[in-house]
Write a structure and sequence with these properties.
Helix content is 69%, strand content 0%. The protein has 5 helices and no strands. Helix 1 packs antiparallel against helix 2 and helix 4 runs antiparallel to helix 5. The relative contact order is 0.14.
């Protein structure tokens, strides 16, 4: 059946997107969020007759496209956070205590972000919009964390409240 074949081709597209979202183990974006988003999008793609990948995330027209675009935004924010985090960690190479403190703070922040987004999306958990809301929350909070860490790299010389040299 052509319809079934098309849906499975779209499913393959989603698999490719999902694979690109599977980030390294040290990534601040937890795998559980990616997996939950993927599961919902995968099911939607099998039952909806629209393309599984939005070409233009400026104007997604279906829930599947919105979910995919929101997932891309979350992955982009995560990639930026990873880059900033690695930069900050490298600046602490000669300060093991500070490096350990940042690692612990980052792990606590990940738990906070996941719990906060779970709270913000609790009422939509069974709906088709859940992946979009969850990814948007993750993207927003992740971008805020990236901005906060980046500001540490721009401290004025002599600022003793700044943990970076």
């Amino acid at each position: 059946d052509i319809g079934c074949k098309t849906r499975f081709t779209r499913f393959d597209s989603i698999l490719a997107i999902h694979s690109s979202l599977h980030l390294k183990r040290e990534s601040p974006l937890s795998q559980s969020i990616v997996n939950e988003t993927y599961d919902t999008v995968r099911l939607a793609a099998l039952f909806i007759g629209h393309p599984a990948s939005a070409q233009d995330c400026n104007e997604p027209t279906t829930q599947v496209e919105m979910n995919l675009c929101a997932g891309k935004q979350a992955a982009t924010a995560d990639a930026e956070l990873n880059a900033v985090y690695k930069d900050v960690m490298s600046r602490l190479d000669d300060r093991p205590e500070a490096k350990k403190a940042l690692r612990e703070a980052q792990r606590a922040w990940i738990r906070f972000r996941d719990a906060e987004c779970a709270f913000r999306t609790v009422d939509s958990r069974t709906g088709s919009i859940y992946p979009t809301l969850l990814a948007n929350c993750t993207a927003d909070i992740t971008q805020s964390r990236a901005d906060a860490l980046k500001s540490l790299t721009e401290c004025e010389e002599g600022d003793i409240s700044c943990p970076l040299p």
